[in-house]
Design a protein that fits this description.
By secondary structure, this protein is α/β, with parallel strands linked by helices. It has two domains: 190 residues, 3-Layer(aba) Sandwich (Rossmann fold); 170 residues, 3-Layer(aba) Sandwich (Rossmann fold), CATH 3.40.50.2000. Helix content is 43%, strand content 17%. The protein has 16 helices and 13 strands. The chain has a seven-stranded parallel sheet with strand order 3-2-1-4-5-6-7, with helices on both faces. A six-stranded parallel sheet has the order 10-9-8-11-12-13, with helices on both faces. The longest helix has 21 residues. It is globular. The two termini are 19 Å apart.
Length: 385
């Protein structure tokens, strides 16, 4: 199918109204695919979610509003109704961007595996989700024609745990360089956005969902130890509270400098680059991630980055980041102090961070996904009837 237009189906039913994480990945991937002349894009959305996807799919894409609004019903719909809808849509390949796929569909399927924490660390997830996604990952390993893993670490662990029968493609995320860049778009625009969030400089920034694997309580404890040395410094926790948020609330509640911890809640897309650019340090101390996009976006904005040793974020950032051992408050204190002090090599780290970010784009990520789609379509055509 080289050079031919690919008729691609993509399931966007799991993306919430305010997308983060895998939802943001799906939005940015759809936007990049919709811009390609060699992709005929069909999106499957929830019944009440057509308008926003029509905007992202572009004039050449189509949106089929067929899935129920409630998640349990959507999972049933995916298995019972979607296979027939795919046959009728005449698509070449179907992409499940969040672990799941129609198990008995006849259209070749590509599934994205973001990480293996549902298998390795079920305690990091809502209890009701664990059996659903553990099973989905194992089904994808057996039934998907091709699989997309977002990093080498994820691919290695997936192959070790699940022995997938389909071909595995490693396709990293991209960065929207129109948004995430060192310079603000207009003079004073960042300050106006930060004022709207109640954020003032100087601040350490955490960006992401507040959930157990992000190690936010450890970050709060580390900030509390250095806050007495930096009288004006605040800690900004920018993100939606996730399950297990009680641990974060407890950590803030016992902190001596809790009045200098600012929880913004969900941050609108327009304000995220401003937050990253304005931070004296971006701290992303997650214990494990499939990719860790906030760390890459911080580098693209020229922000000093502290993240976790031995993770995909450390591999991604290389010498551009200061590292702390997983879950170590002492390690975070040392790394944060070094970053705040402008330790030797800070300028070199910033230049390296910008170079790392420049190597990632959503256009390149879409190209990598398209290689997986085309391979899956060709493999299905070549398979005996």
């Amino acid at each position: 199918m080289t050079g031919a237009s690919l008729r691609l189906s993509l399931d966007v039913t799991a993306v919430p109204a305010d997308p983060v994480g895998a939802g943001r990945y799906t939005v940015d991937l759809v936007t990049a695919l919709a811009a390609r002349p060699d992709v005929d894009l069909t999106l499957w959305s929830r019944t009440g979610d057509v308008a926003r996807w029509e905007g992202w799919a572009g004039p050449s894409g189509s949106v089929r509003a067929a899935a129920p609004e409630r998640r349990p019903l959507r999972l049933v719909w995916e298995q019972v109704r979607l296979p027939g809808l795919l046959r009728g849509a005449g698509v070449d390949v179907h992409h499940g961007p969040h672990y799941t796929m129609p198990e008995r569909g006849r259209v070749p399927a590509v599934v994205t595996i973001h990480d293996l924490t549902f298998l390795d660390h079920p305690e990091w997830h809502e209890r009701s989700k664990v059996p659903v996604f553990r099973r989905a990952i194992k089904v994808a390993a057996r039934r998907a024609t091709a699989l997309v893993c977002v990093s080498d670490q994820t691919a290695w662990r997936f192959e070790e745990l699940c022995r997938p029968l389909g071909r595995v493609f490693v396709v990293p995320h991209g960065v929207d360089h129109g948004r995430f860049r060192p310079e603000e778009p207009d003079a004073g625009s960042d300050r106006r956005l930060l004022d709207g969030l109640g954020v003032r400089s100087p601040y350490i920034l955490f960006l992401g969902t507040l959930e157990p694997r992000k190690a936010v309580p450890e970050l709060v404890a580390a900030f509390d130890r250095i806050a007495g040395e930096e009288a004006e410094l605040t800690l900004v926790l920018a993100g939606r509270p996730g399950w297990g948020r009680a641990e974060v609330e407890r950590a803030v509640g016992v902190a001596r400098h809790r009045d200098r911890v600012i929880a913004t809640g969900y941050v609108p897309d327009a304000a995220v680059p401003a937050l990253l650019r304005g931070a004296v340090v971006v701290a992303y101390p997650a214990l494990e991630e499939g990719f860790g996009l906030p760390a890459l976006e911080a580098l693209a904005c020229g922000a000093p980055l502290v993240t976790t040793a031995g993770t995909v974020m450390a591999d991604l950032a290389g010498s551009a980041a200061l590292l702390a051992a997983p879950g170590s408050v002492d390690g975070l204190v040392t790394a944060l102090r070094s970053a705040l002090a402008g330790s030797p090599g800070a300028d070199d780290r910033r230049r390296e961070g910008l170079a790392v970010a420049a190597r990632h784009s959503w256009e390149a990520s879409a190209e990598g996904h398209l290689a997986a789609y085309r391979w899956a379509a060709e493999a299905a055509r070549a398979a005996p009837p």
